[in-house]
Amino acid sequence: MRHYWFSVGLVLLTVSGIGTYYFVGNQNHLPEFQIETVQGDAKEGAAVVLSGSYYGDMRSESLEVSIKGSKYYNEKVNFRTDILHANSWFYEDLEMQQLLQDHKTFMRGKDNVNGFYRDHEMVIYADLSTSTRYTNAPKGKLQLSYLYEETGKVVRFKSIGMGHSEDIYAIEDVQRVENEMHILFRKESNQKTYEMVYVFDMKTGKQLRQVDVSSQANEVRGSEVQLTNFQNDSRSSASNTVFFVGSIGNGEDGKAFYYSYSYLTGVLSELEEPLWEGRFLVDSLQNELLYYAEIDPNVVTLSVYNTKTKERKRSYAAVTAEQLDVDEIKAAIIKSGRVYLYLLDHAGNSGAAVLDLEDGKLLFKGFAAPVNGNKLTEEEQQENLHLLNMNINQKLEN
Amino acid sequence: MNRYLKLVHMEIHRFRWILIALMGITAICQSSGLIWTLKKAMAQLEEQKIQGADMRKYFDSVPDTLNFEWAMFSTQMWFILPILLCIAVLSLYVFFIWYRDWMGRHTFIYRLLMLPTARRNLFLAKITALLLFVFSIVAFQLIMLPVQELVLKLVVPVELRSESHIVDVININQALVELIPRQFEQFFYIYGLGTIVVLMFFTAILLERSYQRMGILYGILYLAGCALVVAAPLLYFGLDSSIIPLYPMEIYVLVLFLLSVVAAVSVWLGSRLLAKKITV
Question: Is pLDDT larger for residue A86 or for residue B270?
């Protein structure tokens, strides 16, 4: 055995050095935080993720804090997570999670959120056949797939040629109108952008007609109008109407025009009144109801506009910073029947509140705080913890 | 098993002085760089005290208290250069571990191939030894860090120093952060991939030894083939592909499977070449 002392020593050095570092030295390195519930139901705050940095002596570490705790970026990223979290924006979408749960086989290879349509009968998916959505036709051929949910029957139409060679297309919306499929594209051609609707026969996959929506807006205004599609939050609700916001020139004058386009008639109409009013808004179109929140550091005001009946409820709910007992309301997100507010308390700590979108009732309020047992003074937290963003990560309930 | 371990020991024994020299150079270079930096910082601190806070030059200023993280940041090159030297020597030794057996008047490979043991043990012993050299240098570096922190404590008086964590110390160094990843899972991936690359090179070397001039071409083609097999899922069936659409978990499993296939084929082909093609 004495003969082998060097080899044995080398093995011991290796195991002890690497083993000690990974099993002891690497543990509990940075303080842990969590969003501590101050008021309301913690379940309502489960989707809130505050992200930012924790400042060390010489460098900062990115982290995310939620009700469950904190996760530092360097602690969670590796080769496996790099692959698994690719296209995470797609897998984080609640409707996509539902589709993946219901039809995993049909969903294979489909990752363009805007290409989906779902109604009581079927799921439709439209995509361009190259790896990028922004591609030159006719190289980029349109692919259509339908899934009849009850029977499980799948119909596919591959390589439907579109437009001209130098045009670049991006799919913005897909709708089914009886036996026709209407796909709204954003088309870039000769350094100009157009909103185009292509109509296909659902039985044969053949293109029936195309509607130049941008030209209709130009004709009404007598000058070139830049249209931007205003998307519905839900893909599982069929809607025969799509809304656009238009501007003339580079939009510096700040004047916006509002349009609705009917898939049924193929006609673009200018709306008599704007979709929303006010400044510093966040909005969410949920079926025919357009909710919007006007954000001020001291108050957030909720309004709703019914795009069908043209009825508007201005400021149907308002929540003040004083009511929330915070210093400032920094931002808001409207999602899935809830209004998520990003808050700063009087000590400068970041937190979040969740309101019911229907009536503005406070459902949850919480602030980032060190996990019990962490030796961190309030001063140290304020100095080192900088949470600057709020994201909403919803998970499908099984 | 016993013969395999004896072969591993033999390979370690043949490299021991180079390994000790590499560790020695690393220890001397890093420690002397650290001491020099700390002495310089202490002198500068004294100067700053005399000049007062307003007279500090922004870029040259030293913090009021010194810690190991700051010292590591200020001694980057002293740490990186010996690490690069170790990487270079071990990379060359991937080839030399085989070719040295064919060198000289009385070629050692004759004796090795005539040993009363399966020839694949030669292949496995060489890869085991090489991995042990790599991991022992990584472990030595990890063990040196607390020793170097002790050096800092000896050089810098207690009132002028503050604490820092070993993870922060590693993260602040551009070479160490790559060699010693934060998660053990990533450590497994990096060094697992490195092991497979070495196995591929071992097989390519044995192809060259078996088929001489044509063997060079076979070796290059083998390496290119292995690289293509591993890169294929990401290049052709990638994360955003409609050619063979896979879910992310499936791509991950496929990559691991293909890497395992490349490793298994390399070991099998290398062992087979040693057993059937290389003759004494």
Answer: B270
